[in-house]
Specification:
Chains A, B: Belongs to the class-V pyridoxal-phosphate-dependent aminotransferase family. SerC subfamily. Chains A, B: GO terms for molecular function: O-phospho-L-serine:2-oxoglutarate aminotransferase activity; pyridoxal phosphate binding. Chains A, B: Pfam families: Aminotran_5. Chains A, B: Its EC number is 2.6.1.52. The structure is a homodimer. In chain A, the strands form four sheets. In chain A, strands 2-10-9-8-5-3-4 form a seven-stranded mixed β-sheet. A three-stranded antiparallel β-sheet of chain A has the order 11-12-14. The first copy, chain A, has a two-stranded parallel sheet with strand order 1-13. Chain A has two domains: about 50-300, Type I PLP-dependent aspartate aminotransferase-like (Major domain) (Aspartate Aminotransferase, domain 2); about 305-405, Aspartate Aminotransferase, domain 1. By secondary structure, chain A is α/β, with parallel strands linked by helices. Chain A contains ten helices and 14 strands. Chain A is globular and about 70 Å long. In chain A, β6 (about 175-180) and β7 form a beta hairpin.
């Protein structure tokens, strides 16, 4: 069977749908970019055409998210998983250089807020990379869990008084939106479930994995962050490029830190300073992913009324779907995974269909209606509808109707 | 001014031109992959469609290059530059595990053959990553230069007796084709300029950076290599994916090696075993780069008569261009950078136009004829024509004619 795009509602958790006008333009650019007679993947990444693409993307991203001037915007490779390592490596190098004259340099703590699978993985990577360079030697760092919702199976968020930050951590780390169970820190910083910026000791850098909520709404307290990163494949563009927003004073020469000792070796490609010094062109970048991202940014800015328009649309989508789900739950037909409204993700909505064989029935009926990729993550099962920017309110309403009628 | 594709001859050093039929198919796949109603960048990387794409790409690559079964084929991210670090990290971990019971584990030598800018950078990265974990402690490795053509400004290759390999190196490293000056190890393993496989001490792993000659012809003595890697953006596909071909016994758990001590920390994404265990899907891969690479591989196999057909076409292109250049050099009009025929690259042909202002004239005249990206690398200047697989013999003949007439 063959389908047209408009017959399909794609609720994928990522790679996610992309706006139709963007894809049409990208298909054209693939063969002939802007009348050059050369496709966008065949242009020199150091030529004036690509320079305009990447600089335009950065300028539009800065505008959309109001990124302050004292932050660098990097286009890196390797996805969020690579950043699990890179943030650790760069921030330990920074810490070491801050203590360059300290003869008794002690491994710092690094504080993780663990609210799901992705922040767990980031924490585990910090543990791996902390392994001492020789048995009995000092570890490179002491990873700590500053708060976790593991006892609640990651279906809620910690409240402000449940955080236990160490006073002199090299950094505090959290994941803004966990895609698997669908918990997201609320945008309202007054909510009891908001990330407690004010409790983080002054001067301790805050790192946020924004992969799955990036560009879905404004970033609360962006200026309170040290590093914000996001893989492109949710709201920005095709997988292959990862945005790293990093405060410029944290861009340090990791080789200098390595010479002081007490920090792990940093692969040159993982050094943020190298990327920044070379305007993200230290080596050949993922040009197509950056090109499509540039088109998406332009589209968000000009066709979607910027970040306010996007946030409004996403709020409406979430409201429509959660209302249908809450109603169905009240009728005993299903179970919404995240109970606490302030902890619910607007990007990944998870629920479980009650009754033997009913989930399969739900998925098959959905499939026949053109709904795709509604199956929950293989680690938890159930249903997951991801409502990234390119998912329309009409698609969400169609799903809500289906839920009501099921 | 606006150009059609057929008005342009793109001699880019990479990202390089891609075959027209591949781009047409990719443009279609971008909007609707195989009638799914979903574009290829919007498919789940764990779904059956993408599984077929990546597995098909691997199968075709194995067929084209006759990759033995005892090698894994990995689709990684980060380009060749990331591999400068990754090969060092993985092979040091391997070495450490081979000496797991050695109480006096000594840092091994690592031997580099330095024949240009890329192998220089790889060597420098080994030097960086060898920095001891504390001042006065043992370094992680002792990088050596086993041979170099730096005194000849990288315009030739070493002869067999100019190599000085250490007997127990953790590995020997070379770059098969250096793009900046255009030197390439000859395919004829009997040539005095061939890479001297037989001089490498038995058991020492051999690593080759094949980025810029990958898929341009068969790989001589592939079974003698431990690791062969290549960024896609020359003969395979768009930048963003890097192929790593690694002998399966070298896939080791780097965390175990780190626990033994004496090796640098290995970011999880750099561990070849992790990528292999997860069939290159440990995290979201660069799906579009892999998709286009899959289309290119299919095209090379079915429309270009496989690797023999490609090698023949590239030999003919090189012959046509070098003949024109040698003739022009004999007439005193220009200077070919690489004199020794056996050391000349078939992928990157470099020359210098003699006479004040003549180079600018040459480039401008070429531009008017539709020749693009002929300017040499900014570090050396001059002219560079790159003749990757998608550059046609007709384009090369047009350039050769222009050189003769200039």
């Amino acid at each position: 069977m063959s389908f047209a795009r408009d017959q399909i509602h794609n609720f994928a958790a990522g790679p996610s749908p992309l706006p139709q006008p963007v894809l049409e333009k990208a298909a054209q650019g693939l063969l002939n970019y802007d009348g050059t007679g050369i496709g966008v993947c065949e242009l020199s990444h150091r030529g004036k055409e690509f320079k305009a693409i990447i600089e335009g993307a950065e300028a539009n991203l800065r505008k959309l998210l109001e990124i302050p001037d004292n932050y660098a915007v990097l286009f890196s490779q390797g996805g969020g998983t690579t950043q699990f390592s890179s943030v650790f490596l760069n921030l330990l190098a920074y810490r070491r250089l801050q203590h360059a004259n300290d003869a008794d340099y002690a491994p710092p703590t690094v504080d993780y807020v663990v609210t799901g699978s992705w922040s767990s993985k980031a924490y585990q990577e910090a543990v791996r990379l902390s392994i001492p360079p020789a048995p009995g030697a000092k570890p490179f760092a002491e990873p700590r869990i500053a708060a976790t919702t593991k006892p609640a199976k990651f279906t809620t968020l910690p409240k402000a008084d449940e955080y236990d930050f160490s006073p002199e951590a090299a950094y505090v780390y959290y994941c803004e939106n966990e895609t698997i169970n669908g918990v997201e820190f609320p945008a309202d910083t007054q909510s009891p479930y908001a990330f407690p910026f004010d409790r983080v000791p002054e001067g301790v850098p805050i790192v946020a994995d924004y992969s799955s909520s990036f560009l879905s709404r404004p970033i609360p307290k962006i200026e309170r962050h040290a590093i914000i990163y996001a893989g492109a494949q949710k709201n920005l563009g095709p997988p292959g490029v990862t945005i790293v927003i990093v405060r410029k004073d944290l861009l340090v020469d990791t080789t200098e830190a390595m010479k002081l000792g007490g920090v792990p070796a940093v692969p040159i490609q993982s050094e943020f300073k190298t990327l920044a010094d070379n305007k993200s062109l230290y080596n050949t970048p993922p040009v197509f992913s950056i090109y499509v991202s540039a088109l998406v940014l332009e589209y968000l800015l000009n066709e979607r009324n910027g970040i306010a328009g996007i946030a409004e649309a996403n709020a409406a989508k979430g409201e429509a779907l959660y209302a249908a789900l809450d109603e169905a739950e009240a009728n005993g037909k299903l179970r919404v995974v995240v109970k606490e409204k302030d902890a619910r993700s607007l990007m990944n909505v998870t629920f479980v269909i009650e009754g033997e064989g009913r989930e399969k029935e739900f998925l098959e009926g959905g499939e026949a209606r053109g709904f795709r990729q509604l199956k929950g993550h293989r680690s938890v099962g159930g249903i997951r509808a991801s409502l990234y920017n390119a998912v329309t309110l009409d698609s969400v309403k169609a799903l809500a109707e289906y839920i009501k009628s099921f």
